[in-house]
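Reopening this one. Same input as before:
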Amino acid sequence: MKPDWEKLGDDFSGSSSVLIGDVDCTVEKTLCSQYGVKGYPTIKYFTDATAADGEKYEKGRSYSELKSFADENFGPTCSPANKDLCSAEQLANFAEVEALGAAAIEAAINEMQGEITAVENAFTTGVAGLQEQYQKLQQEKDDVAAKHAAKLKLYRAVVKGAASKDGL
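Same output, byte for byte:
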């Protein structure tokens, strides 16, 4: 992936609005933690529409897929700062949200983010419970197999010996 990432960086090296960079999270642990990077490699992007800690990129990692995503999502796009790039529908959506007022918009963002955080926490707790259940079941399986291993081996040997003797 690194050569494709570097090639993408070269493509945008002269851009005043797009920066393609990387961070070594084994060195910059605090920075990576601040931006929610938990596994490597992680690709995050930042636009006017993403949260302050960015958005995780989870699409293809080939050069063509990265380039296509960058071309479609970075640089000047429809936004409150670039309304001239918006469709009539997008302008109507902005007007509807702007009419709510700053306090209501901030409250809605906090509510939505709170719901996302609650679901993420429930997911993490649920996965931990499943992991615990998996480990318990794995241990039970291993214990029963170990309990019967010697006797099972003996019984199979006796059956095999009897079969050989009887010509079966």
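So the earlier flakiness isn't reproducible anymore. For the record, The longest strand covers residues 43-45.
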